[in-house]
Amino acid sequence: MEDTFIIRGIEFKSRLWVGTGKYKDFDETRRAIEASGADVVTVAVRRTNITDRKSENLLDFIDPKKYKILPNTAGCYNVADALRYSRLAREAGISDLIKLEVIGDEKTLFPDNIGLLEATEILAKEGFIVLPYTTDDPVMAKRLVDAGAAAVMPLAAPIGSGLGIRNPYNLKIILEQATVPIIVDAGVGTASDVAIAMELGCDAVLLNTAIAGAKDPIMMAMAMKHGVLAGRMAYKAGRIGKKLYATASSPFEGML
Amino acid sequence: MKLTINGETVENIKAQTVSELLAELNIVQGRVAVEVNLSVIKRAEHEAFQLKDGDVVEIVNFVGGG
């Protein structure tokens, strides 16, 4: 059963997107991504090692023909840096996709939404397909779309925290008003967290640490794949309403 | 010539263009992005783009990230 979604004409087959950071080595990265079934992987942009040219390259392990490469601007704390990294990322890669991060605080890694909005507008005008990482604020989500965001990526909880969906009600409001795909980004810890995101109606979930930091990353990648599928199917199936009292499942008729 | 490459001063560079610089550094051209004095140099321009003494060059590629 095909269940794809589209961002600016690009079709996405998997609703689980994964990061490539924090793995033991590139081989583990490759195996975890394969096990997750993701078709989008995020990468960071960093200086090439010019003295040790024998060092391995991530793209030797992650085939850009098989996966959509989504570069991020992680580590950027102001608009100028975010623009600079985005432009370099587009040149190093093959698409206009950018996961835009403008970080506002070192301890929480919460986004600086004011800078994010400004950078989104500039990059959208330059033809980028901007996917901004933002807080779970419905008003901000709207403003980002007005500024040209192709999708909005609200956080579940701080990056790498594993706290899960901390504000499902805000996400629900964001989803209700959404005119672009909504992808929960950051903070999920385990398979039930991604299932909750999907049950709320999110279009996809992006995670990294929850897999890379698990005791068995490959098994956790599989768990996440199933969590996303389970949550998505439950969302489409339409859950029962919650009630305070019981309703019998067995008939009264025919009782002795 | 002397260039600043990825924050380090590198002397005796023989390359005159971006293409030649990547070759001199043994870097596969298709996988990196190059910036000279804060401007991104597009891949199609690597061959023609002339470097000059004192240029600040950044060469980046993709690494694991979330």
In words, what does this structure look like?
The complex is a heterodimer of chains A (256) and B (66). Chain A is built from 8 helices and 10 strands. Chain A is α/β, with parallel strands linked by helices. Chain A has a 5-stranded parallel sheet. A 3-stranded parallel sheet of chain A has the order 6-7-8. Chain B is mainly β and 66 residues long. Chain B has a single domain, classed as Roll (Ubiquitin-like (UB roll)), CATH 3.10.20.30. Chain B has 1 helix and 5 strands. In chain B, a hairpin with a 2-residue loop joins strand 3 (33-36) and strand 4 (39-41). The A-B interface holds A 19-23, 26, 29, 42-48, 50, 53, 57-59, 69, 71-72, 74, 84, 87-93, 159-160, 186, 206-209 and B 5-8, 10, 25-28, 31-35, 38, 40, 42-43, 58-66. Strand 4 (40-47) of chain A pairs antiparallel with strand 5 (56-64) of chain B.
What's the arrangement of secondary structure elements?
The complex is a heterodimer of chains A (256) and B (66).
Chain A: E1 5-7, E2 10-12, E3 16-19, H1 26-36, E4 40-47, E5 68-71, H2 79-92, E6 97-100, H3 113-125, E7 129-134, H4 138-146, E8 153-154, H5 168-177, E9 183-185, H6 191-200, E10 204-207, H7 209-212, H8 217-237
Parallel strand pairs in A: 3-4, 3-10, 4-5, 6-7, 7-8, 9-10
Antiparallel strand pairs in A: 1-2
Helix pairs in contact in A: 1-8, 2-3, 4-5, 6-8
Chain B: E1 3-5, E2 8-10, H1 18-24, E3 33-36, E4 39-41, E5 56-64
Parallel strand pairs in B: 1-5
Antiparallel strand pairs in B: 1-2, 3-4, 3-5
